[in-house]
Amino acid sequence: MGDNVEVGVYPLEKAKDLAKEQELDLVEISPKAKPPVCKIIDYKKFLYEQKKREKALKSKATKVTIKEIRFGPQTDEHDYEFKKKHAIKFLQDGAKLKAFVFFKGRSIIFKEQGQILLLKLAQELEEYGKVEQLPRLEGKRMIMFIAPKKVK
After folding, report:
1. d(C-alpha 26, C-alpha 37), whole Å
2. β-bridge mates for residue 56, sequence order
3. Are 97 and 133 in contact (CB under 8 A)?
4. Do 113 and 79 meet the contact criterion of CB atoms below 8 Å apart?
5. Which of 87, 2, 74, 79 is nearest to 37 (CA)?
6. Could you report the per-residue pLDDT of 104-149, keeping only the tens digit for each?
């Protein structure tokens, strides 16, 4: 295969001669095929275009950032509102939000307060994002994930 070459089965020597004639490279495309599929191309140009394609795919891939907001089980109203404003900004910027309540020492007895706090936050952020994972206790942390809503 290649430019100015008729598609067909050629012996290896003839394929090499054809490539040399055109001052190009004989590149094996699929070695496991019977017979192996080769192509007469400029190998450097092929590698360059392959890198270019991979770079374009990589640039189109979305990078997910995760922002964290930490509460205590008895966070007062002002601090809660302040952190909620930050959460709204993070979700509007397209970042995932990881909200968690950290229990220090004996404050673990206030698990219900922590869960209520996170559920309240989820309810108030409903228009900006959707809950990906409901509050779950992991060690001394109760964690909840909120993903941003897609902007149309």
Report:
1. 10
2. none
3. no
4. no
5. 2
6. 888 888 788 888 889 899 999 888 888 888 888 888 889 999 998 8
Beta bridge partners of 41: 25
Tell me if 2 sits within 8 A of 41, measured CB to CB: yes
Structural domains in the chain, sorted by start: 12-59 (3.10.20.80), 66-148 (3.30.110.10)
Please, what sign has the CA dihedral across residues 119, 121, 122, 127? positive
What are the start-end ranges of the H helices in 29-110?
43-60, 77-92
For the chain, how many residues are written?
Answer: 152
Tell me, yes or no, if the pTM score tops 0.70. no
Pairing of strands 141-148, 129-138: antiparallel
With DSSP H G I counted as helix, E B as strand and the rest as coil, what are the percentages for the chain, rounded to 5?
Answer: 40, 30, 30
| Count of CB atoms situated within 10 Å of the CB of 85 | 10
